[in-house]
Amino acid sequence: MPKLLAARAAGPLASQTQLEQDAEEDLPAPHFEGDPTPRLSQRSPVGSANLILRNFRDIPLDTAQLAPANGLVFPADMDLTFTREQMGKEGYTMVGKGGPKDGPFTLAHHWLAFKMDKNLCGINGRLAAPGEPLVIISSKERLDEIANAVSRSHRPDKPYEGVNVFVSRIDTVWLYCGRYRIVHDGRLDEHAQPLPVGPSANQMWPPLLRRAFRRHASDNKDTKTLPPWRQRVLRDWNFETAYDLVLADQELKAAQPSERPQRVMRYLVLACDGVDEESLAVWKANKLSGKRKAVEDGDKAAKKKRSAPAEDDYHSDDDGEDDEY
Protein backbone atom coordinates (compact mmCIF):
# COMPACT_ATOMS: atom_id res chain seq x y z
CA MET A 1 0.00 0.00 0.00
CA PRO A 2 1.45 3.44 -0.88
CA LYS A 3 2.47 5.53 2.11
CA LEU A 4 -0.22 8.13 1.52
CA LEU A 5 -3.00 5.53 1.54
CA ALA A 6 -1.54 3.91 4.64
CA ALA A 7 -1.50 7.26 6.44
CA ARG A 8 -5.12 7.92 5.48
CA ALA A 9 -6.14 4.46 6.69
CA ALA A 10 -4.65 5.27 10.08
CA GLY A 11 -7.47 7.77 10.61
CA PRO A 12 -7.33 11.11 12.41
CA LEU A 13 -4.27 10.11 14.44
CA ALA A 14 -2.05 10.66 11.40
CA SER A 15 -0.71 14.21 11.56
CA GLN A 16 -1.23 16.69 8.73
CA THR A 17 2.53 17.16 8.45
CA GLN A 18 3.05 13.43 8.00
CA LEU A 19 0.32 13.29 5.35
CA GLU A 20 1.98 16.09 3.41
CA GLN A 21 5.37 14.41 3.56
CA ASP A 22 3.98 11.02 2.53
CA ALA A 23 2.02 12.59 -0.31
CA GLU A 24 5.19 14.07 -1.75
CA GLU A 25 6.96 10.72 -1.51
CA ASP A 26 4.08 9.05 -3.38
CA LEU A 27 4.41 11.38 -6.39
CA PRO A 28 5.69 9.53 -9.46
CA ALA A 29 9.12 10.46 -10.77
CA PRO A 30 8.89 12.29 -14.12
CA HIS A 31 9.30 10.02 -17.14
CA PHE A 32 10.81 11.15 -20.40
CA GLU A 33 9.75 9.18 -23.47
CA GLY A 34 12.24 8.42 -26.19
CA ASP A 35 15.37 8.68 -24.02
CA PRO A 36 17.67 6.20 -25.79
CA THR A 37 20.22 6.00 -22.95
CA PRO A 38 19.36 3.90 -19.88
CA ARG A 39 20.01 5.96 -16.77
CA LEU A 40 20.02 5.37 -13.07
CA SER A 41 17.18 7.87 -12.74
CA GLN A 42 14.60 9.03 -15.26
CA ARG A 43 14.50 12.43 -13.60
CA SER A 44 16.13 15.27 -15.45
CA PRO A 45 18.80 17.31 -13.60
CA VAL A 46 17.24 20.32 -15.32
CA GLY A 47 14.02 19.65 -13.38
CA SER A 48 15.95 19.72 -10.11
CA ALA A 49 17.74 22.90 -11.15
CA ASN A 50 14.43 24.63 -11.89
CA LEU A 51 13.03 23.50 -8.56
CA ILE A 52 16.02 24.95 -6.69
CA LEU A 53 15.71 28.27 -8.53
CA ARG A 54 11.98 28.47 -7.75
CA ASN A 55 12.69 28.05 -4.03
CA PHE A 56 15.92 30.05 -3.76
CA ARG A 57 14.73 33.01 -5.79
CA ASP A 58 17.79 35.17 -5.10
CA ILE A 59 20.35 32.78 -6.60
CA PRO A 60 22.00 34.67 -9.51
CA LEU A 61 22.23 31.57 -11.71
CA ASP A 62 20.30 30.01 -14.56
CA THR A 63 19.34 26.40 -15.14
CA ALA A 64 22.33 25.67 -17.36
CA GLN A 65 24.74 26.68 -14.59
CA LEU A 66 23.16 24.19 -12.17
CA ALA A 67 22.67 21.21 -14.48
CA PRO A 68 25.63 18.92 -15.28
CA ALA A 69 27.38 18.85 -18.65
CA ASN A 70 25.32 17.28 -21.45
CA GLY A 71 27.84 14.48 -21.89
CA LEU A 72 27.64 13.32 -18.28
CA VAL A 73 25.59 10.10 -18.16
CA PHE A 74 25.07 7.60 -15.36
CA PRO A 75 24.06 4.27 -16.98
CA ALA A 76 21.35 2.29 -15.23
CA ASP A 77 23.69 -0.61 -14.51
CA MET A 78 26.27 1.49 -12.64
CA ASP A 79 26.76 0.30 -9.07
CA LEU A 80 26.76 3.54 -7.06
CA THR A 81 25.58 2.55 -3.56
CA PHE A 82 28.10 1.99 -0.78
CA THR A 83 28.40 1.65 2.98
CA ARG A 84 30.56 3.91 5.13
CA GLU A 85 33.16 1.16 5.44
CA GLN A 86 33.38 0.80 1.65
CA MET A 87 33.74 4.60 1.30
CA GLY A 88 36.82 4.55 3.55
CA LYS A 89 34.92 5.50 6.67
CA GLU A 90 36.37 8.26 8.87
CA GLY A 91 33.80 7.75 11.60
CA TYR A 92 30.29 9.08 10.98
CA THR A 93 31.62 12.36 9.72
CA MET A 94 30.24 14.73 7.11
CA VAL A 95 33.65 15.34 5.51
CA GLY A 96 36.15 12.73 4.42
CA LYS A 97 39.35 14.76 4.30
CA GLY A 98 41.44 12.45 2.15
CA GLY A 99 43.41 10.92 4.97
CA PRO A 100 45.51 12.29 7.86
CA LYS A 101 47.22 15.65 7.41
CA ASP A 102 50.66 14.12 7.80
CA GLY A 103 49.94 11.31 5.33
CA PRO A 104 49.40 11.07 1.56
CA PHE A 105 46.21 12.47 0.08
CA THR A 106 43.82 9.72 -1.07
CA LEU A 107 41.02 10.67 -3.46
CA ALA A 108 38.84 7.74 -2.42
CA HIS A 109 38.85 9.03 1.18
CA HIS A 110 37.88 12.56 0.12
CA TRP A 111 34.11 13.14 0.04
CA LEU A 112 31.11 14.89 1.51
CA ALA A 113 28.24 12.84 2.94
CA PHE A 114 24.82 14.47 3.39
CA LYS A 115 21.48 13.20 4.59
CA MET A 116 18.50 14.71 2.82
CA ASP A 117 16.45 15.58 5.91
CA LYS A 118 17.82 19.13 6.26
CA ASN A 119 19.15 19.75 2.75
CA LEU A 120 17.81 19.89 -0.80
CA CYS A 121 19.21 16.55 -1.95
CA GLY A 122 16.37 15.44 -4.21
CA ILE A 123 12.91 16.42 -5.38
CA ASN A 124 9.36 15.40 -4.48
CA GLY A 125 10.58 13.73 -1.31
CA ARG A 126 12.92 11.43 -3.24
CA LEU A 127 16.66 11.11 -2.83
CA ALA A 128 18.76 13.00 -5.37
CA ALA A 129 19.83 11.08 -8.45
CA PRO A 130 23.46 11.19 -9.58
CA GLY A 131 24.27 14.43 -11.36
CA GLU A 132 21.47 16.49 -9.83
CA PRO A 133 22.36 19.86 -8.25
CA LEU A 134 22.31 19.98 -4.45
CA VAL A 135 21.73 22.69 -1.84
CA ILE A 136 23.44 22.24 1.51
CA ILE A 137 21.83 24.24 4.33
CA SER A 138 23.62 24.74 7.63
CA SER A 139 25.46 27.14 9.91
CA LYS A 140 28.34 29.24 8.61
CA GLU A 141 30.81 27.18 10.61
CA ARG A 142 29.74 23.92 8.99
CA LEU A 143 29.48 25.46 5.54
CA ASP A 144 33.01 26.82 5.95
CA GLU A 145 34.16 23.24 6.57
CA ILE A 146 32.37 22.07 3.42
CA ALA A 147 33.75 24.91 1.29
CA ASN A 148 37.23 24.13 2.59
CA ALA A 149 36.82 20.49 1.54
CA VAL A 150 35.79 21.51 -1.98
CA SER A 151 38.79 23.81 -2.31
CA ARG A 152 42.33 22.64 -3.05
CA SER A 153 43.84 25.10 -0.58
CA HIS A 154 43.84 22.74 2.42
CA ARG A 155 45.61 19.93 0.52
CA PRO A 156 48.13 21.11 -2.12
CA ASP A 157 48.41 17.50 -3.37
CA LYS A 158 44.70 17.40 -4.26
CA PRO A 159 44.48 17.13 -8.08
CA TYR A 160 41.32 19.17 -8.69
CA GLU A 161 38.92 21.77 -7.29
CA GLY A 162 35.83 19.85 -6.22
CA VAL A 163 34.77 16.92 -4.07
CA ASN A 164 32.94 13.60 -4.34
CA VAL A 165 29.44 13.68 -2.86
CA PHE A 166 27.31 10.96 -1.28
CA VAL A 167 23.70 11.40 -0.18
CA SER A 168 21.46 9.21 1.93
CA ARG A 169 18.18 8.88 3.79
CA ILE A 170 19.77 6.58 6.39
CA ASP A 171 23.27 5.87 7.68
CA THR A 172 23.64 2.36 6.24
CA VAL A 173 23.51 2.98 2.46
CA TRP A 174 24.99 5.96 0.61
CA LEU A 175 24.50 6.91 -3.05
CA TYR A 176 27.43 8.34 -5.00
CA CYS A 177 26.19 11.35 -6.99
CA GLY A 178 29.39 12.44 -8.69
CA ARG A 179 32.12 15.06 -8.26
CA TYR A 180 30.77 18.49 -7.33
CA ARG A 181 31.89 22.11 -7.23
CA ILE A 182 30.37 25.17 -5.54
CA VAL A 183 28.40 27.34 -7.98
CA HIS A 184 26.83 29.73 -5.45
CA ASP A 185 28.05 30.71 -1.99
CA GLY A 186 25.29 31.78 0.40
CA ARG A 187 27.29 31.81 3.62
CA LEU A 188 27.41 35.56 4.26
CA ASP A 189 24.37 37.70 5.08
CA GLU A 190 24.44 39.59 1.77
CA HIS A 191 24.30 36.34 -0.25
CA ALA A 192 22.25 34.14 2.10
CA GLN A 193 18.53 33.45 1.67
CA PRO A 194 16.40 36.12 3.41
CA LEU A 195 13.59 34.59 5.45
CA PRO A 196 10.01 35.92 5.15
CA VAL A 197 9.02 38.36 7.90
CA GLY A 198 5.91 40.26 8.93
CA PRO A 199 2.33 39.27 9.77
CA SER A 200 2.00 37.13 6.63
CA ALA A 201 5.36 35.39 6.97
CA ASN A 202 3.86 31.91 7.22
CA GLN A 203 2.17 32.27 3.82
CA MET A 204 5.31 33.55 2.06
CA TRP A 205 7.53 30.50 2.43
CA PRO A 206 8.63 28.56 -0.67
CA PRO A 207 7.66 24.98 0.27
CA LEU A 208 11.08 23.31 0.20
CA LEU A 209 12.68 26.11 2.20
CA ARG A 210 9.95 25.82 4.81
CA ARG A 211 10.54 22.10 5.17
CA ALA A 212 14.30 22.55 5.57
CA PHE A 213 13.82 25.41 8.05
CA ARG A 214 11.34 23.38 10.08
CA ARG A 215 13.74 20.47 10.38
CA HIS A 216 16.69 22.63 11.41
CA ALA A 217 14.66 24.66 13.92
CA SER A 218 13.21 21.48 15.47
CA ASP A 219 16.45 19.50 15.78
CA ASN A 220 17.12 18.68 19.42
CA LYS A 221 20.44 16.91 18.90
CA ASP A 222 23.15 18.15 21.22
CA THR A 223 26.59 17.19 22.45
CA LYS A 224 28.16 17.07 25.88
CA THR A 225 29.52 20.59 25.47
CA LEU A 226 27.13 22.30 23.04
CA PRO A 227 23.44 23.26 23.17
CA PRO A 228 20.88 21.65 20.80
CA TRP A 229 21.39 22.20 17.08
CA ARG A 230 18.16 24.22 16.72
CA GLN A 231 19.50 26.76 19.20
CA ARG A 232 22.90 27.02 17.57
CA VAL A 233 21.65 27.30 14.00
CA LEU A 234 18.95 29.89 14.79
CA ARG A 235 21.52 32.06 16.51
CA ASP A 236 23.79 31.69 13.47
CA TRP A 237 20.91 32.73 11.19
CA ASN A 238 20.55 36.04 13.12
CA PHE A 239 17.57 35.17 15.31
CA GLU A 240 17.67 37.28 18.46
CA THR A 241 15.94 35.17 21.11
CA ALA A 242 14.30 32.18 19.39
CA TYR A 243 15.65 28.76 20.24
CA ASP A 244 12.99 26.50 18.66
CA LEU A 245 10.56 26.43 15.74
CA VAL A 246 7.60 27.99 17.57
CA LEU A 247 9.60 30.94 18.86
CA ALA A 248 11.36 31.36 15.50
CA ASP A 249 8.01 31.66 13.72
CA GLN A 250 6.86 34.21 16.27
CA GLU A 251 10.05 36.24 15.81
CA LEU A 252 9.69 36.21 12.02
CA LYS A 253 6.07 37.32 12.27
CA ALA A 254 6.98 40.24 14.53
CA ALA A 255 10.04 41.34 12.53
CA GLN A 256 10.14 44.16 9.96
CA PRO A 257 11.72 43.90 6.47
CA SER A 258 13.95 46.88 7.26
CA GLU A 259 15.56 45.24 10.33
CA ARG A 260 19.27 44.49 10.17
CA PRO A 261 20.79 42.03 10.34
CA GLN A 262 18.18 40.13 8.40
CA ARG A 263 17.19 36.68 9.54
CA VAL A 264 18.62 34.40 6.87
CA MET A 265 19.23 30.79 5.91
CA ARG A 266 22.85 30.06 5.00
CA TYR A 267 23.62 27.58 2.24
CA LEU A 268 25.88 26.40 -0.57
CA VAL A 269 24.75 25.31 -4.04
CA LEU A 270 26.73 22.43 -5.56
CA ALA A 271 26.65 21.31 -9.20
CA CYS A 272 28.04 18.08 -10.63
CA ASP A 273 30.93 18.41 -13.07
CA GLY A 274 32.03 14.80 -13.53
CA VAL A 275 32.70 11.37 -12.08
CA ASP A 276 35.80 10.35 -10.14
CA GLU A 277 36.43 7.03 -11.88
CA GLU A 278 39.56 6.32 -9.84
CA SER A 279 37.74 6.58 -6.51
CA LEU A 280 34.71 4.73 -7.85
CA ALA A 281 36.95 1.80 -8.72
CA VAL A 282 38.33 1.75 -5.16
CA TRP A 283 34.86 1.77 -3.56
CA LYS A 284 33.69 -1.00 -5.88
CA ALA A 285 36.77 -3.06 -5.03
CA ASN A 286 36.06 -2.54 -1.33
CA LYS A 287 32.48 -3.74 -1.85
CA LEU A 288 33.64 -6.80 -3.80
CA SER A 289 36.23 -7.60 -1.14
CA GLY A 290 33.53 -7.43 1.53
CA LYS A 291 31.29 -9.80 -0.45
CA ARG A 292 34.16 -12.24 -0.91
CA LYS A 293 34.91 -12.16 2.80
CA ALA A 294 31.26 -12.83 3.61
CA VAL A 295 31.29 -15.85 1.26
CA GLU A 296 34.56 -17.11 2.73
CA ASP A 297 33.23 -16.73 6.27
CA GLY A 298 30.11 -18.65 5.25
CA ASP A 299 32.19 -21.42 3.69
CA LYS A 300 34.33 -21.68 6.82
CA ALA A 301 31.23 -21.95 9.02
CA ALA A 302 29.74 -24.64 6.77
CA LYS A 303 33.01 -26.58 6.67
CA LYS A 304 33.30 -26.41 10.45
CA LYS A 305 29.75 -27.70 10.82
CA ARG A 306 30.42 -30.59 8.41
CA SER A 307 33.59 -31.59 10.27
CA ALA A 308 31.96 -31.51 13.73
CA PRO A 309 31.44 -35.03 15.28
CA ALA A 310 27.91 -36.38 15.01
CA GLU A 311 25.83 -36.23 18.18
CA ASP A 312 24.96 -39.52 19.95
CA ASP A 313 21.40 -40.64 20.34
CA TYR A 314 21.83 -40.03 24.05
CA HIS A 315 23.86 -37.27 25.62
CA SER A 316 24.46 -36.09 29.13
CA ASP A 317 23.45 -32.80 30.68
CA ASP A 318 25.40 -31.24 33.50
CA ASP A 319 23.38 -33.24 35.99
CA GLY A 320 24.71 -36.53 34.61
CA GLU A 321 21.27 -37.92 33.72
CA ASP A 322 20.57 -39.21 30.20
CA ASP A 323 17.82 -37.55 28.16
CA GLU A 324 15.18 -39.92 26.86
CA TYR A 325 13.88 -39.60 23.25
Automatic annotation (TrEMBL):
Name under which the protein is recorded: Uncharacterized protein
Record organism: Rhodotorula toruloides (strain NP11) (Yeast)
Region feature (Disordered): 1-45, 289-325
Origin superkingdom: Eukaryota
Compositionally biased spans, kind Acidic residues: 314-325
